[in-house]
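Give me structure tokens for this 135-residue protein.
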Amino acid sequence: MKKKKTAPHDTRNWNRYQFFGIAAVSAQKEDTIHKTTIANISLSGLGVYSATPIGKDRKAMITISFVDRDGKMRKDTAAGKVDWQRKFSDIYLIGILFDEELNMLNQPRVLEHISWLIDTYHWPQPYKDKRIAML
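Here you go.
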């Protein structure tokens, strides 16, 4: 008996946001820094485009760089793990899960910018659960 395919089910608890910036990703036990372009960000992870593969399940340090609303270059860092990686034409689409959610203590500049984006563009709050409003 053939098993019926089910439609994909989104199990994410956080909304993702368009985020223009770059991320320097250095995989653990590797001297290479992968320069990537950020596709989207949430409180729990980052979607990036990379010219080189990083490797699924690799631990990484990520430096997120972006231009804030005042035109200043800002940076914050986070630790994470490559959750998935897919080759698409000549680039790699990569999903990175942060070891802990972004927070004001460790990533104040990124969170301030996300908060500004949410307010400016009337995007939904970070958590998909409407009972929780963080920013």
